[in-house]
Design goal:
Layout: E1 9-11, E2 26-31, E3 40-44, E4 50-57, H1 65-73, H2 86-93, H3 97-109, E5 118-120, E6 125-131, H4 132-139, E7 144-147, E8 153-156, E9 159-163, H5 164-167, E10 170-174, E11 193-194, H6 224-231, E12 245-250, H7 257-267, E13 277-281, H8 293-310, E14 316-320, H9 329-336, E15 373-376, E16 380-381, H10 387-403, E17 406-410, E18 423-424, E19 431-432, E20 441-442, E21 450-456, E22 468-469, E23 479-485, H11 491-501, E24 517-520, E25 523-526, E26 530-534, E27 537-542, H12 544-564, H13 574-577, E28 586-587, E29 616-617, H14 619-628
Parallel strand pairs: 12-14, 12-15, 13-14, 15-17, 17-21, 21-25
Antiparallel strand pairs: 1-5, 2-9, 3-7, 4-6, 4-10, 5-6, 7-8, 11-27, 16-20, 18-19, 21-22, 23-24, 26-27, 28-29
Helix pairs in contact: 1-10, 7-8, 8-12, 12-14
Protein name: tripeptidyl-peptidase II
Keywords: Calcium, Glycoprotein, Hydrolase, Metal-binding, Protease, Secreted, Serine protease, Signal, Virulence, Zymogen
InterPro entries: Peptidase_S8/S53_dom (IPR000209), Peptidase_S8/S53_dom_sf (IPR036852), S53_propep (IPR015366), Sedolisin_dom (IPR030400), Tripeptidyl-peptidase_I (IPR050819)
Length: about 625
């Protein structure tokens, strides 16, 4: 069990540095990844407006991230499973005194007194409240107010610059170029889709005497029993007091207790009345007064299947964000990593809720130990995130892996396209009506998370037949990142796929990144025709957001078996997923594709592919492998 390290801010007023640095010509440091859609720039921000500025300092030893993660995650490493402590990680990656000195001198040279500056104890961030006029002069930029037709407003700048001699010491600065592209929500969060034929009676009936009644209709109605049969899940947890499993939900999404009981009554009667353990992050509430698929679909789905597959393992609900602001990816990281928190961490005021806020919601910094497994079924188009923002967050996922946490993200439901089937313009990487360039999803493209795609039981088939890539209602998200380089653990598998299927490429030049980038997904699970309790009835939903908690549940069961035998959690699992030695632990998916952007997309084929990854888990084999590791 890892100890939560609480990190506070200390003043820089009493810290002596060398003489101020000479002034230098400013150079462009960061520009907006994509122009905001449907937002109009309406006015300049008032010069007296106070901005909560955060200067992210360049961390040391980032070149060691992949090596350190592999040392505790690669099955052939002598240090496998010997995860790092939070203190070791902070000490390894904290910025140097030279970096702190350079940035501090720049700010004080510009007229910001030293006693206004605050430094996090891990030395990762400098915070200062500054007027718009001060910041515009400091960053050689202009801040504007943007207005949406709904009346919502945001502020930001298109780009900003820093002195050339400081640039190497600055990771990113907030608030600046990050932008909430969708009114009313920080991210596109609807990852499941209902069918119009909502049903209200018993779901499964026996139509084929050759298989059990509860498996008769798995090609059209997926249940807990179907998933157990598909993947061979036959394990009851015994170390539930030592194991932990967290599921992230973003307010105003919230489960309804009655929906859980409706689902459990039909498919897990002994769980009626069981609830997740809520951890309310940044003023979160499990609201139940707004009831519709958009408000309850994701949470109901995640919890019904996560809890159902891992029972009697208690499941922690990481409910994030209040009703005033909602939240983003960085906010749930706040709760498990105090060093990433507001004012001394990675929160982005343009994509994440900033707390404390006007509604009185407190911030939640380092309030719980990271769960052994965390499942997140949310995402955003990678093109809407700047490289600095994405890389800073991705590094935090690597650190969680070093601590022993498995982070699972869904890959999206639009194949090679982005949300709402949006594709990129080949010339400027912007979303356009005529875009033809593939639009991958973040954070699934981060090489330090496990990205989960979707499969389906083909119509007319049974749980005993091979699955195909999901092509009912949704298409499994997959492809190649435009930000992250290919990690070493997947180089062999991806190179084999490229040699066999992309040489020569069937796509036009510029359709996707061919420069050796991170490929996804890593693994898949069924994502079609899930039966859930939703707003008092039973209905069918689809999505990689269904696949993610299923994979996370299987890893949770594997952790239970290891913990019960005196071992630790598996942590980052991608090295094992891609190891040729462990290929028999996966069901290879060789049918279907993930079309989008006016193309058929990629095809599922033998071995790893950018539709279903290495395939779906064969749970008994995967369990045996992980139990055999130290």
């Amino acid at each position: 069990m890892h100890r939560v390290t609480s990190l506070f801010l200390v003043t820089l007023a009493g810290i002596a540095f060398a003489v101020p640095s000479p002034r230098s010509t400013h150079v462009l440091h960061e520009k907006r990844a994509m122009e905001p859609v449907d937002w109009m720039r309406t006015s300049r921000l008032d010069g007296d407006h106070v901005l909560p500025m955060r200067f992210g300092l360049s961390q040391q030893n980032l070149h060691l991230v992949e090596e350190m993660l592999a040392s505790v995650s690669h099955p052939e490493s002598p240090k496998y499973g010997q995860h790092y402590s939070a203190e070791e990680i902070i000490e390894t990656f904290k910025p140097s005194n030279e970096t702190i000195e350079a940035v501090t001198n720049w700010l004080t040279d510009a007229g910001i007194s030293r006693d206004r500056l605050r430094l996090s104890i891990n030395k990762g961030w400098i915070h200062v409240n500054a007027s718009t006029a001060e910041v515009e002069d400091l960053l050689k930029t202009e801040y504007h107010i943007y207005t949406h037709p709904s009346g919502a407003q945001q502020l930001g700048c298109h780009n900003y610059s820093v002195p050339a001699h400081v640039q190497g010491h600055i990771d990113l600065i907030k608030p600046t170029v990050q932008f909430n592209h969708r009114a009313g929500a920080n991210l596109e969060r609807r990852r499941v889709k209902p069918l119009p034929n909502i049903v209200s009676g018993p779901v499964v009936t026996s139509t084929d005497a050759s298989i059990p009644a509860n498996l008769a209709n798995c090609d059209s109605q997926i249940t807990l029993a179907c998933l157990r049969a598909l993947y061979g899940i036959d394990y009851t947890p015994v170390a539930t007091d030592k194991n932990t499993f967290g599921i992230v939900e973003f307010t105003p999404q919230a489960f309804l207790p009655g929906d859980l009981d409706l689902f459990f009554k039909n498919f897990a009667p002994n769980m009626v009345g069981v609830r997740p353990i809520p951890v309310l992050i940044d003023g979160a509430v499990v609201q139940n007064f707004s009831q519709s698929f958009n408000f309850n679909g994701e949470s109901d789905l995640d919890l019904q299947y996560g809890m159902g597959l891992t029972a009697p393992q208690p499941v922690t609900l990481l409910q994030t964000g209040d009703l005033s602001q909602g939240a983003g990816f960085d906010n749930w990281l706040d709760a498990i990593d105090g060093s990433f928190c507001t004012f001394d961490g990675g929160d982005d005021p343009e994509q994440d809720g900033i707390y404390p806020d006007a509604a009185g919601s407190p911030d939640s910094c380092g309030i719980l130990v990271p769960p052994n497994v965390v499942s997140i079924s949310y995402g955003q188009d990678e093109a809407t995130a700047s490289a600095h923002y994405a890389n800073r967050q991705c590094t935090e996922y690597a650190k969680l892996g070093m601590l022993g946490t498995t982070v699972v993200y869904s890959t999206g439901d639009d194949g090679v396209a982005g949300f709402n089937d949006a594709c990129l313009d080949v010339n400027d990487n912007e979303v356009g009506t005529g875009g033809t360039t593939f639009n991958p999803e973040f954070p699934a493209t981060c090489p330090f998370v496990t990205a989960v795609g979707a499969t389906q039981i083909n119509p007319g088939n049974t749980v005993n037949d091979p699955e195909g890539a999901c092509e009912q209602v949704i298409f499994s998200g997959g492809g190649f990142s435009n930000i992250f380089a290919m990690p070493s653990y997947q180089a062999l598998a991806v190179s084999a796929y490229e040699s066999a299927h992309l040489n020569p490429s069937p796509f036009l030049a510029g359709t996707f990144n061919t420069s050796g980038s991170r490929a996804f997904p890593d693994i898949s699970a069924n994502g079609a025709n899930y039966v859930i309790g939703i707003d008092g009835v039973l209905g069918l939903v689809f999505g990689t957001s269904a696949s993610a908690p299923v994979v996370a549940s299987m890893i949770t069961l594997i952790n239970d078996a290891r913990i019960a035998s005196g071992k630790g959690p598996v942590g980052f699992i991608n090295h094992i997923l891609y190891s040729p030695i462990f290929a028999p632990a996966f069901n290879d998916i060789t049918m279907g594709g993930n079309h989008g952007c006016g193309t058929p997309g990629f095809n599922a084929t033998k071995g790893w592919d950018p539709v279903t990854g290495v395939g779906t888990p064969n749970f008994p084999r995967l369990l045996d492998i992980f139990k055999s590791l130290p």
